[in-house]
Specification:
Catalyzes the ATP-dependent phosphorylation of N-acetyl-L-glutamate. The protein is built from nine helices and 14 strands. By secondary structure, the chain is α/β, with parallel strands linked by helices. It has one domain: Carbamate kinase (3-Layer(aba) Sandwich). Helix 2 crosses helix 9 and helix 3 packs across helix 4.
Length: 257
């Protein structure tokens, strides 16, 4: 069975019960299965909380956080520090052999700034899988924050969805994007188990898929095309379904390439 990359958002980090549920399911699963798992996380809510405490303004452009040079240290502290170590600490208390990383450890990825107006914001590309492969072979659970490094040695803020897609490509893994939604719902609010590009386009045209779900579904579709296999959107709120999800069952919506 291929390795599994789980992308978790900042909302999970702000919900101790949800974090407990996810890591409990992971611990239970790993006791009886030997599937390699990697967690990639964001933490926008952790960043916002820290910025608020420091009385710093939050600027956005096209929905992306502007990260000037005088703020990147704070973003790194929030994501690679607070968010990463909070998840790591919780995993370790559950006897999971977790290790905390950022996207540049072992030259796993390289970041490329894509809009100078956004400052220290970048996309990442896969580079060297050796460190991650060795950690997985030794049965570690890597927990990777969405902070990258460019070829000039600058720390960069990376969208967590894009970071997770890159890590999945790096080790040819399956990808599940965990969020606080059950998946994609039809016009009658029933979960749709599987969708392809044509069906997604139709549901967006019919205004069944709207707002933030459009972004989520399009990111999953791009990932499915990049990886050449289905990508799941699923909910972390249902601990009873998490073990089935880790085993490869569809519990949310699988977006097919």
């Amino acid at each position: 069975m291929k390795a599994l990359v789980l992308k978790v958002g900042g909302v999970l980090l702000d919900n101790p019960q949800a974090m407990d549920n996810l890591l409990t399911a992971l611990a239970d699963y790993r006791r009886s299965h030997n599937r390699s798992i990697v967690i990639v996380h964001g933490g926008g809510i952790v960043v916002d909380n820290l910025m608020k405490k420091l009385d710093l303004p939050v600027q956005k452009k096209n929905g992306l956080r502007v990260t000037p040079s005088d703020q990147i240290d704070i973003i790194v502290a929030a994501l690679a520090g607070i968010a990463n170590k909070t998840l790591l600490a919780k995993a370790l208390t559950m006897q999971l052999s977790a290790v905390g990383l950022f996207l540049a450890d072992g030259n796993m990825t390289e970041a490329h700034q894509f809009d100078p107006e956004l400052g220290h914001v970048a996309n990442v590309v896969p580079k060297n899988p050796t460190l991650l492969q060795q950690l997985l072979q030794a049965d570690f659970l890597p927990i990777i924050s969405s902070i990258g490094l460019d070829n000039q040695g600058r720390l960069m803020n990376v969208n967590a969805d894009q970071a997770a897609i890159t890590i999945a490509k790096l080790i040819d893994a399956d990808l599940v994007m965990l969020s606080d939604v059950d998946g994609v719902l039809d016009a009658d609010k029933r979960r749709i188990p599987e969708l392809n590009a044509a069906q997604i386009a139709q549901l967006i045209a019919d205004k069944v898929i709207t707002d933030g779900m459009i972004v989520k579904v399009n990111a999953a579709l791009e990932a499915a095309k990049d990886l050449g296999r289905g990508v799941d959107i699923a909910n972390w709120k249902h601990p009873d379904r998490l073990t089935a999800l880790l085993s490869g069952e569809i519990v949310g919506t699988r977006i097919q390439p």
